[in-house]
Specification:
The complex is a heterodimer of chains A (115) and B (112). Chain A contains no helices and 10 strands. The termini of chain A are far apart. Helix content of chain A is 0%, strand content 47%. By secondary structure, chain A is mainly beta. With 112 residues, chain B is mainly beta. In chain B, 0% of the residues lie in helices and 48% in strands. In chain B, the strands form 2 sheets. In chain B, strands 2, 4, 5, 6, 9, 10 and 11 form a 7-stranded mixed sheet that branches. In chain B, strands 1-3-8-7 form a 4-stranded antiparallel sheet, with no helix packed on it. Chain B is globular, with a radius of gyration of 13 Å. The chains are: A mainly beta (115), B mainly beta (112). Chains A and B meet through strand 5 of A and strand 4, strand 5, strand 9 and strand 10 of B.
Chain lengths: 115, 112
């Protein structure tokens, strides 16, 4: 069955970096794009962008340009999200979701940024 | 950016009753390829969102036929008939026709 399994929760200080992974199984990884979605505590969903899993080309929403990097380890069917120079407002749960319909989602990774 | 106006914010329902959620977009969601990329999701407490309806009216695999989607252009509706306890949670619409993808603000379906 199709699964997206994300890495575990993270506690970081402002200014630090974090890398979140999303491991796919049950389908051909390079056949479907991977999207990233942010959900701040108690808030709604916000689309961050997506990565073409065949070419590796990332596309970022405007609010996520600069400190956010999408990458792949295609041989491991894994998509990654790295956030650098963390700020308090980056505290959120980050989800990966497959393809344009967002048909399968990871379980989410809670990232807490606190001094 | 396309603004997705989702109403109501909160929707109290009785078990076995019917619920209707509206999503209106600030511009047409018809893509140049003719498809309309408007989808609906349910997020249960403490869980990740799950796809219910894709491209306006297509039920995703395993989704009960109590859920139905309709609409066109800028006006879309999700209907839930015979509400069951597992239907409670936050519902979101999403448009992925125009860059950037945008979600509605959500509707909390709760017991009356």
């Amino acid at each position: 069955q199709i699964q997206l399994v994300q890495s575990g929760p993270e506690l970081k200080k402002p200014g630090e970096s974090v890398k979140i992974s999303c491991k796919a199984s049950g389908y051909t990884f390079t056949d479907y794009a991977m999207h990233w979605v942010k959900q701040a505590p108690g808030k709604g969903l916000k689309w961050m962008g997506w990565i073409n899993t065949y070419t590796g080309k990332p596309t970022y929403a405007d609010d996520f340009k600069g400190r956010f990097v999408f990458s792949l380890e295609a041989s491991a069917s894994t998509a990654n999200l790295q956030i650098s120079n963390l700020k308090n407002e980056d505290t959120a749960t980050y989800f990966c979701a497959r393809t344009r319909n967002f048909d399968y989602w990871g379980q989410g990774v809670m990232v807490t940024v606190s001094s | 950016d396309v603004v997705m106006t989702q109403t109501p914010v909160s929707l109290p329902v009785s078990l076995g009753g019917q619920a209707s959620i509206s999503c209106r977009s600030s511009q047409s969601l018809v893509h140049s390829n003719g498809n309309t990329y408007l989808h609906w999701y349910l997020q249960k407490p403490g869980q990740s969102p799950q796809l219910l309806i894709y491209r306006v009216s297509n039920r995703f695999s395993g989704v009960p036929d109590r859920f139905s989607g309709s609409g066109s252009g800028t006006d879309f509706t999700l209907k839930i008939s015979r509400v069951e306890p597992e239907d409670l949670g936050d519902y979101y619409c999403l448009q992925s026709t125009h860059f950037p993808d945008t979600f509605g603000a959500g509707t909390k379906l709760e017991l009356k």
